[in-house]
Automatic annotation (TrEMBL):
InterPro entries listed in its UniProt record: Cbl-dep_enz_cat, Me-malonyl-CoA_mutase_sm_su_N, MeMalonylCoA_mutase_a/b_cat, MeMalonylCoA_mutase_a/b_site
Keywords: Cobalamin, Cobalt, Isomerase
Family to which the UniProt record says this protein belongs: Belongs to the methylmalonyl-CoA mutase family.
Organism, as annotated: Blastococcus colisei
SUPFAM superfamilies in the record: Cobalamin (vitamin B12)-dependent enzymes
Subunit organization: Heterodimer of an alpha and a beta chain.
Protein name: methylmalonyl-CoA mutase
Cofactor: adenosylcob(III)alamin
Length: 643
């Protein structure tokens, strides 16, 4: 029995104005914090400053919370504390679910086509028709409510679309295709004459995404004709604004949303110039966004995107009902790792949670092995069960916009919306998205955003579990069939957060023998274990084994010329310079020290510490161990993973 069948009689999501039984009413005079004294922000700041000074911070910013703030997107910082004082500048009209400005959701209740939850959409791109047909059947029988088929060379052949969908009840399961005009034409030919298609499908036309990926201008004049044919089928949309092409290039949510608005406006112009009314044009668009494991940023981004699209609709003259942005959230390819891929299950669970809480109409969880190749039946099962767990066991969709009203979430939503709108208007001033792509404006802006993120990744401020932190050098990666399509080139790049660390791991794995960094410890275990553990974790992130020993005694047995001294500051002052000399006498030609540079130990080549540029350290060690040539040989030519 499918999830739709089981939930046919499921109760509607809870509403704020639902009638509450008298015995369950909370007394209006209940003082939950009566035993706690009032605390001001200034008092909190004094306490924070005291803690920071005890941790060694001598110079503190004003206000002190700036020391604890972090950047989550271009021009968007998150503070450590939000109170009612922060609500003063926020828009008061966030509305209610299903009504403008749609911040709290595009629907007043659950999707009528998917009682009790959002649309669970699984992606299929296997070129073997029999394999895809079997996978489609397994998905629909086990919780998936709609299909997403990648059509074209290296994926599902357009001429085999009918065979792939032969066992699918198209009046029950919406189908979305990706593959340009040939895919759209193939699907329209398949359903010609039918009037019972399940609403929620998509023809996936997105010429601007192709332009962004290839650098080549595309024809938009065909959109209106296809849209009129799609309009013959209730709920079938012709155009997808696929913002994941910007997300996958390294954009923050600000660039992703701003570019999606610019693409949406370009499509509105093309559709209305082709004869569609404004409302009809709005009804032909679906928006696709990346959902990352940065939970609250993803929630805020989806809310902000709906608010801004409503604003576009308002100035375009669209009716209030047509301005609700239909959103398809896809778990991020950027966050997906090849190494320790099992951790991707946790990342996609958080991303799926954020997409659901953020109000996405459709959610796709990418299989945990997507970066390795074509997923198998196990990884697809885990992907769909992730959503089933959140919807059916967690009842996540039973409450609309559960994050709404939080000072933090509302403030973050507002900050993202303002920054994204500024970027959108900059694109429009440059002549629109086509001109901004041609001029390099979009590429340069996204590159700057990625440079900021890459710097945080290099220092492990943004840690990647299983890759830059807590790597497993003994892991055996699952084998997967490689993708058979060629990644587009000539336009925006495709990046992954783990790519630089994984390149180092590949180089180390490609050596005839596992390369090593010897950890030369000072003093008893209690004194050196903290820094030895830290240094070992850092060097292992580059695929380097880290045998250890007392002083220089174990260097010869470690069979390496790179060493790292580990101990306490007191031990360093007494013995580190002498140990560095002993290590060099024993054959070490590169010596690191686990500690900060202000220790200034004679004979040391560099320092490893929390916040150091780990990639710089690892590349220097690799070069010294003559692994750079191996890295060049193992460098990938391109990847096919991603949405």
């Amino acid at each position: 029995m499918s999830r739709t069948d089981r939930q046919a009689d499921a109760p509607a999501p809870a509403h704020a104005d639902a009638e509450v039984p008298a015995e369950h009413e909370v007394p209006s005079d209940l003082a939950l914090a009566a035993e706690f004294g009032a605390t001001t922000r200034d008092q909190w700041r004094e306490l924070v400053a005291g803690v920071l000074r005890k941790s060694g911070r001598e110079e503190l910013p004003d206000p002190v919370e700036d020391a604890l703030s972090r950047t989550v997107a271009t021009g968007v910082r998150v503070a450590p504390l939000y109170t009612a004082d922060d609500a003063g500048d926020l828009p008061t009209a966030v509305g209610v679910p299903g009504l403008a400005p749609f911040v709290r959701g595009s629907r007043a209740g659950g999707d009528p086509a998917v009682p009790g939850g959002w649309d669970v959409r699984q992606r299929h791109a296997h070129p073997d028709v029999a394999v895809t047909r079997e996978a489609v059947a397994a998905d629909l029988e086990n919780g998936v409510t709609s299909l997403w088929l990648v059509v074209g060379d290296g994926a599902v052949p357009a001429e085999e679309l009918g065979n792939v969908l032969a066992d699918v009840y198209l009046d029950l399961a919406p189908v979305a295709v990706t593959g340009g005009l040939p895919a759209a034409e193939a699907f329209l030919a398949l359903v010609e004459g039918r009037d019972d298609l399940a609403p929620g499908g998509s023809l996936g036309l997105d010429p601007l995404a192709v332009h962004a990926a290839t650098g080549e201008r595309q024809d938009l004049t065909c959109l209106a004709g296809v849209a009129r044919r799609a309009a013959a089928h209730d709920g079938l949309r012709s155009v997808v604004v696929d913002a994941t092409v910007f997300h996958d290039a390294g954009a923050s949510v600000v660039e992703e949303i701003g570019c999606s608005l610019a693409a949406g406006v370009a499509y509105l112009r093309a559709l209305t110039e082709g004869g569609l009314s404004v409302d009809e044009a709005f009804g032909q668009l679906e928006f696709r966004y990346g959902a990352s494991a940065d939970q609250f940023t993803t929630i805020a981004a989806l809310r902000a995107a709906r608010r801004l699209w409503d604003r576009v609709g308002g100035v375009s003259g669209a009716s209030s009902e047509s301005r609700a942005q239909r959103q398809h959230a896809v778990t991020s390819s950027v966050m997906t790792t090849k190494r320790d891929p099992w951790v991707n299950m946790l990342r996609t669970t958080v991303a799926c949670f954020a997409a659901g809480v953020g109000g996405a109409d459709v959610v796709t969880v990418q299989p945990f092995d997507a970066a390795l190749g074509l997923p198998d039946s196990f990884s697809r099962r885990i992907a769909r069960n992730t959503q089933s767990l959140l919807v059916e066991e967690g009842h996540l969709a039973r409450v609309l916009d559960p994050a709404g009203g939080s000072w933090y979430v509302e403030s973050l939503t507002d900050s993202v919306a303002r920054a994204a709108w500024d970027w959108f208007t900059e694109i429009e001033r440059a002549g629109g998205l086509v001109a901004a792509l041609d001029s390099g404006l979009v590429r340069d802006r996204i590159a700057a955003a990625w440079d900021d993120r890459a710097a945080r990744l290099a220092t492990r401020e943004d840690a990647i579990t299983g890759v830059s932190e807590f790597p497993n050098l003994a892991e055996k990666l699952p084998e997967r069939q490689p993708y058979t399509w060629s990644a587009p080139s000539g336009g925006l790049p495709k990046v992954r957060a783990a790519q630089e660390f994984e390149a180092l791991r590949d180089a180390a794995d490609g050596a005839q023998e596992r390369p090593r960094v010897y950890l030369a410890t000072l003093g008893p275990v209690a004194r050196h274990t903290a820094r030895a553990t830290f240094a070992g974790n850092l060097f292992q992130a580059g695929g380097l084994a880290t045998p250890s020993g007392d002083g220089a005694s174990g260097l010869a047995e470690a069979s390496t010329t790179v060493a790292c001294i580990c101990g306490t500051d007191k031990d360093y002052a007494e013995s580190a310079a002498a140990l560095a000399k002993e290590l060099r006498a024993a054959g070490a030609t590169q010596v690191w020290l686990a500690g900060k540079p202000d220790l200034a130990v004679e004979g040391v080549d560099g320092y490893v510490f929390a916040g150091c540029d780990a990639l710089h350290v690892l590349r220097a060690a690799h070069e010294h161990l003559d692994l750079s040539a191996v890295m060049a040989i193992n460098a990938p030519s391109g990847e096919g993973a991603g949405a």
